[in-house]
Amino acid sequence: MNLRLGTRGSALATAQSGQFADAVVAAAAAAGSEATVELVKVTTKGDVDRGSLVGLSQTGVFVTALREALLAGECDFIVHSLKDVPTQPYSGLEVVAIPEREDPRDVLCTDGRTLEELPAGAAIGTGSPRRGSQLLAMRPDLDIRPLRGNVDTRLGHIGDDLDGVLLAAAGLNRLGRSDDATAPLAVTDMVPAPGQGALAVEIREDAPEELRSLLATLDHAETRACVTAEREALRVLDAGCAAPVAAHATVRRGRLTLHTRVISTDGTLALNERNMGVVAEAASIGRSSGFSLLGRGAERLMGRA
Asked: What is the pTM of this model?
């Protein structure tokens, strides 16, 4: 099989897509067949717009162009960072695989100083209200500043106009740059974004069965259960990537535990919901968490009431 994988053109996107492409080739070889995978780079609105994510009218700004390219037949399958993917299904497409998740934690990158060692008023850059809000909950004195750009661009601000930046551990790891992280932040303090660290592989609904079967072998059941719970909570809350909503699920001995958090943008108020159940009930656990948070006033913290 000669396959075309649609990806964003950023260094991180091509790195993670390239790693998945290698996994596809290996999976085909293990099944006794051969496959080649060509990366097809697609420019997205999120790559062109350098402004803050806050206020962007389109949920899934990094996703739509890839999906349109797939539907147009420009590629055979696409790979997304799952945290960027809207929770609503997209007509004509389906997620055929969610590979095993990378480290879901957020990390603080500085000149070597830990969060506790940063001086009062230190400037920290992030494009994520979720990260900024939770960091303020830990250190209300910090100066949180909006930041966009690729990993190199963000890290380049350290020691210039910023004392530090917040990034995803998964991104640094996939780029081979884990040494740039000063310290990972515990998931209990900085709850990750729903789906953070996971990838989503989409195909057309009418994709050849040979392709569907090959990609499905790379699905990781435990990761799929965790992100299903996280994203169901997000869907019920009707919150996009710019909302201060966090969710993190784990599986142990056949039981799934989900921690969902909604926090005010200034970090002063937070609602936490923890639910547990068997793995097969992942979607139900997520929905229950979302509805419970709505009943407790989550819309006010998200600025919708």
From this structure: 0.91
